[in-house]
Amino acid sequence: MTRTEAFVAAFKSLLSIAGLCVDWHENDFSKRILNVPQELYEKGCVKDVDDGLKAAEEVGYPVMIKASEGGGGKGIRKVNNADDFPNLFRQVQAEVPGSPIFVMRLAKQSRHLEVQILADQYGNAISLFGRDCSVQRRHQKIIEEAPAATATPAVFEHMEQCAVKLAKMVGYVSAGTVEYLYSQDGSFYFLELNPRLQVEHPCTEMVADVNLPAAQLQIAMGIPLYRIKDIRMMYGVSPWGDAPIDFENSAHVPCPRGHVIAARITSENPDEGFKPSSGTVQELNFRSNKNVWGYFSVAAAGGLHEFADSQFGHCFSWGENREEAISNMVVALKELSIRGDFRTTVEYLIKLLETESFQMNRIDTGWLDRLIAEKVQAERPDTMLGVVCGALHVADVSLRNSISNFLHSLERGQVLSAHTLLNTVDVELIYEGVKYVLKVTRQSPNSYVVIMNGSCVEVDVHRLSDGGLLLSYDGSSYTTYMKEEVDRYRITIGNKTCVFEKENDPSVLRSPSAGKLIQYIVEDGGHVFAGQCYAEIEVMKMVMTLTAAESGCIHYVKRPGAALDPGCVIAKMQLDNPSKVQQVSRKILLILLSKSRLHGNSSLERQKVVDDLISHWDRQAELHTGSLPRIQSTALRGEKLHRVFHYVLDNLVNVMNGYCLPDPFFSSRVKDWVERLMKTLRDPSLPLLELQDIMTSVSGRIPPNVEKSIKKEMAQYASNITSVLCQFPSQQIANILDSHAATLNRKSEREVFFMNTQSIVQLVQRYRSGIRGHMKAVVMDLLRQYLRVETQFQNGHYDKCVFALREENKSDMNTVLNYIFSHAQVTKKNLLVTMLIDQLCGRDPTLTDELLNILTELTQLSKTTNAKVALRARQVLIASHLPSYELRHNQVESIFLSAIDMYGHQFCIENLQVYIIALFCHSALLAYIAYELNSVQHRQLKDNTCVVEFQFMLPTSHPNRGNIPTLNRMSFSSNLNHYGMTHVASVSDVLLDNSFTPPCQRMGGMVSFRTFEDFVRIFDEVMGCFCDSPPQSPTFPEAGHTSLYDEDKV
């Protein structure tokens, strides 16, 4: 059995003459096949630049240089003048090496129409309607449609007849495409016969219902056209017959079925003149339906290399008419999701399909190029939405990198400063010539706060497994991705893209994408002007020119032929205007200026230079001074009491975990959260609303009688909620659950019941001590969270504490990381803790045993960073052991009344000064009961004003005290030792200079003034007491003379 091979395409002799036009007459058609002499063929081609220039002068500019074997926009260039001709001619030669080249006159404002033909070896040839491929950029088709609706039916029928005649004249066999340029006046001109199936052939297949590849194969097998099933059906005859068909005089005239729109998906950047780029594809998701389908040459986790074609997908949409086909295509493209290292044309295609010019079919082959020149861009997301998303992505990357680096250091045994764990990131973005300066702070693991110009917005952020961020912003959700490139950030929000520039250095010229350096156009060291081409690179089979952004002298780094990576340095420039160089950020610039050559100048001169440089810097990109828009944050969280409670409680828990905002936002927000927390905790409707939420979720999953009984208790509580004696029925609800559980005999039934009522049981347990008990429990949980972290950093220096934590948690470094991250914000946590203590103990000084233990633990925090919290806790403990204010007031009042009754008018005003001094002394004793007072004395100033001066030692627990021996203490401090409390720092320790060295003796004083004017007048003299050396006064055990502490005298 012998095997016969057939060539499934046009004859080889036809392949190289496509596009060549020769003179012919109608009478020549009788010869059946028109031969093209070799000499005539060679005359129609140009061999070098000189021949091309002569031909261009003959036909007149502008002209088109076209390689016969080119296609897809390759090997074709438009030339406007003779100066540009040599360079563009070489580009055509480089893109299609060895191909014959034509030079033709440019046809302006024309349409590109095609006729699909089929011809067999028996002399039969037919046309299968036509296509309109007028939407092109750089002469490469972007959008195709069938049938061609721009020409009148009579004109297009004539174009089809001419295409069939041409196929018969040259003896064409197989499928092919005859291409025309159609003018607005109705005339048309032959462009070329493309001897192959084109990528847009499915357009014809869908409107003609003919399988073109199958028909091409059958023709190659020797089957005549009239024996092909699809052809017979198109001409309305029996599909299984074999009778010949008179195609030119058929009784049934074929008609197109509906309308088709096709769109090519390419890896090109529409914002930069459709520059191609390569890279990997992370995601590609296309949803086809009965009217829309597509194919792609890459898949997820695939990629495009720099030597491949930029087109990697083709989508087709069918509709009953043109409008419906356009609508179906727009919907499909909006649902197409492509995420990779490169930009695509999807967004721009949507923009083109929605323009009025396209929908009204008022376009030509130069329409898209005009839109590109006019900087018409695809639809962008809202500017502020893009800025917020961009800032979040940049900050998220920085924060994750800081955490990752810190964690790796811990695993290696290295201890970094806690401040390297970032929680706030400064972000600068440039968008369309406007600079946005923002701060981004984590408020929780899934919540960020974006700050700009004194305004802020809160955004919920969830990290996706594929590296994207799901944002909840202003009541809507957005799936966003970021691709960081050499000189920009590319942010994709849904199916829209915005690009933020980085502050760059125009003196460094880089490759925009991967490819190959072909040649330099300017000599090394030569001068180029802004916008002038300096080199050519080959990117994805296309020759692209690189232009200089600024004027200057160029010096090359790469050699011609070198492979290029994205962002690699090609050349460097010596700018004519060096002030345009932006090599460092604004912050680094200020630091360098303050630490370098400006040191020798005066402060005014340094400030003037800094101001001038900042002024020049800000001229590079206009600084945005507006604020962020207000968004619907409260509407999403809900305004019901229990939802507000959980929101503020979660925020306070996150503060304890170290997620703190920068000032001044932190102080105001924490104050608001604490006030709202206490307000909701004191509201008796809080447990009722929480239980209502739970009952809604478990309704139908618990027995009806249990649900009915619980709702009865809820209704009774709701009716009496305003009563002071009304208590939440925690115990009653617990009894209902226990009673029903006791009736269940099967273990499986009890487990199901407990699982369904678990949330109710947890609520009942939280409120078992009533509203106030729940309030104290919530606040104490926050205080315990503070203690759990800060107690880890009390035993030695920071490094020692971290090593101890690392030893305790060898298998879980994340726990160590969380401790350090929380401790880094101890100063801000102190503010929250003192607020909570004031709220909890300010109104009611009585303390439960559990709260007493927590406050006692707080007093034992010995680090200076915890001094304020320890002091406030001790003050609360002291206040809890004192009689109530009313009782003390009544006792003092009774003493005064009894003294008046006893002594009557014997009270002398002359003794008032002694009483004042005694009052001051006792006040000092009571106020500094936690300290070691070692001297108290009084004296008079120049105008007989009394002043009491006292000296005291810091407590042994204070870090500045060291190992100084403890002095004997007076008996009035023994009561505090009864409660097991140690000594902590006082307010004065926080305010005084910590540079004092042991013996750590401090000094205080008390003075009384009759009027404010006396205070102003004597103030300097009083302050002078602290400047003098401490007065010589014996300590209490060594006192050998009568003292103010002698109770008989006082």
Automatic annotation (TrEMBL):
It is found in: Cytoplasm. One of its GO terms (biological process) is fatty acid biosynthetic process. Residues 1-373 form the Biotin carboxylation domain. InterPro entries: ACCA, ACCA_BT, AcCoA_COase_cen, ATP-grasp, ATP_grasp_subdomain_1, Biotin_BS, Biotin_carboxylation_dom, Biotin_COase_C. Residues 500-574 form the Lipoyl-binding domain. Residues 1-21 form the signal peptide. Its main location: cytoplasm. Its cofactor is biotin. Residues 30-221 form the ATP-grasp domain. One of its GO terms (molecular function) is ATP binding. Keywords: Acetylation, ATP-binding, Biotin, Cytoplasm, Fatty acid biosynthesis, Fatty acid metabolism, Ligase, Lipid biosynthesis, Lipid metabolism, Nucleotide-binding, Phosphoprotein, Signal. The keyword Phosphoprotein applies. The keyword NADP does not apply. One of its GO terms (cellular component) is mitochondrion. CDD domains: biotinyl_domain. It comes from the Eukaryota. SUPFAM superfamilies: Glutathione synthetase ATP-binding domain-like (SSF56059), Rudiment single hybrid motif (SSF51246), Single hybrid motif (SSF51230). Monomer, homodimer, and homotetramer. Can form filamentous polymers. Interacts in its inactive phosphorylated form with the BRCT domains of BRCA1 which prevents ACACA dephosphorylation and inhibits lipid synthesis. Interacts with MID1IP1; interaction with MID1IP1 promotes oligomerization and increases its activity. Cytosolic enzyme that catalyzes the carboxylation of acetyl-CoA to malonyl-CoA, the first and rate-limiting step of de novo fatty acid biosynthesis. This is a 2 steps reaction starting with the ATP-dependent carboxylation of the biotin carried by the biotin carboxyl carrier (BCC) domain followed by the transfer of the carboxyl group from carboxylated biotin to acetyl-CoA. This is Acetyl-CoA carboxylase 1. It comes from Eschrichtius robustus.
